[in-house]
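Need residues for this backbone.
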């Protein structure tokens, strides 16, 4: 089941608070997230990203089991979320995520390059 389809059905429409409320309702319906399927959790995390709910991307991914936390996509999205949220220390956390990921097999390295560049530009500004 793809929960993101509910949000993506109208790509030209700006996301609203009702989108976020719907995602939180879906998350609550899952119950204990430790027992939820990884694909469902990834889909929910990406849906939070799509509505730019950076706190929720971080909060949700914090609750993932270790194997899922080490997933390349999850690491990328956590780095992006910290970078975009941009609270005190978030850019450093995004950089740490990148450093921890160096040397690990990454089938899609290009997003990392852009994330590193945006972090460097933001911290040097």
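Answer:
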């Amino acid at each position: 089941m793809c929960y993101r389809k509910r949000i993506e059905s109208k790509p030209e429409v700006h996301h609203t608070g009702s989108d976020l409320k719907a995602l939180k309702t879906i998350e609550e319906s899952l119950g204990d997230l430790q027992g939820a399927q990884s694909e469902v959790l990834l889909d929910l995390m990406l849906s939070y990203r799509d509505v730019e709910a950076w706190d929720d991307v971080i909060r949700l991914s914090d609750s993932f089991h270790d194997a899922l936390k080490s997933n390349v996509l999850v690491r990328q999205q956590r780095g992006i979320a910290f970078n975009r949220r941009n609270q005190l220390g978030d850019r450093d956390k995004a950089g740490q995520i990148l450093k921890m990921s160096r040397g690990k097999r990454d089938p899609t390295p290009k997003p990392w390059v852009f994330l590193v560049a945006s972090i460097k530009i933001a911290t040097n500004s």
